[in-house]
Structure formats: C-alpha cells, structure tokens
Amino acid sequence: MALTLEAARKLPSMSGKNKLVFAPTKYLDQEFLDRYRITFCQLPFQIYKAVDGLSGGKEVKAEAAKHSWHIFETHVRYSASYAKAAREGTPLENTSNVHYYVSAEFNRFVEEFFTTIGLSKS
Questions:
Q1: How far apart (Å, rounded) are the C-alpha atoms in residues 39 and 104?
Q2: Does this model's pTM top 0.85?
Q3: Do 46 and 66 belong to one domain?
Q4: Are 30 and 52 in contact, with CB atoms under 8 Å apart?
Q5: Does 23 share its domain with 76?
Q6: How many structural domains are present in the chain?
Q7: Which domain does 85 fall in, by range?
Q8: pLDDT tens per residue, the chain (122 residues)?
C-alpha cells in the first residue's frame, strides 16, 4: 500500500512526535511529510512481488488479464531524481546526484517497454 494523502491524514497524532511509516512508495512531497511530522521509509516493491499471497499483486494480475494488459517485469521505484531531472531539464542519467541504480533501473524499464511495443531504443 502506498502512502497517500488520505492515508497520511488518517495517521494518529503522536503528541508532537514523528510518525515512522514503511511503504513501497509515497505520493507526497517532502514538504508535506515534514509538516505532518512523517518519516517515510521505502520498502522494496520486490517484497510485495515475492509474496504471492498479498492481494495487491493478485488484484493487479487479475485486472490486467481481464483487459489483456501487459505487466512489465521491471518495476520502477519512486525516486526524487525524476522530478529533479525535470526541474534541471536534463536526462535522468545526467541529473546531479542521481544514484546509478535509479538510472539503471529506469533504463531497464525503457528497454523492456520499447521491446514490448516493437521498437528499438536507438
């Protein structure tokens, strides 16, 4: 389950203390997290993918099968580098302070996406 605005607002008050939240992704910016005193710790999506008993994976697979949608093997995790690349106007791999694994993971997805639609990256 992702940390959403609705989920964050439902968190209990901790008498001025920070709330520690573990989730595979978040849809909130750091300013919001700071304002609501939330410390976000990202869990790798692979934890959820590996445990087939979780409803999220099964629901996604069922919905995809119903509509004949492709499910990509490569999963792209949240990274602040995506927004930073847009702000800097640079390709992801040229963004300042981008981690190698973020760029490599995104490039693996790009390769898989282009292969799926029958195009070559170059």
A1: 27
A2: no
A3: no
A4: no
A5: no
A6: 2
A7: 62-122
A8: 678 888 888 888 888 888 988 887 888 988 999 999 999 888 765 555 544 444 556 777 887 788 888 888 887 878 888 888 888 999 988 989 888 888 888 888 888 888 888 887 66
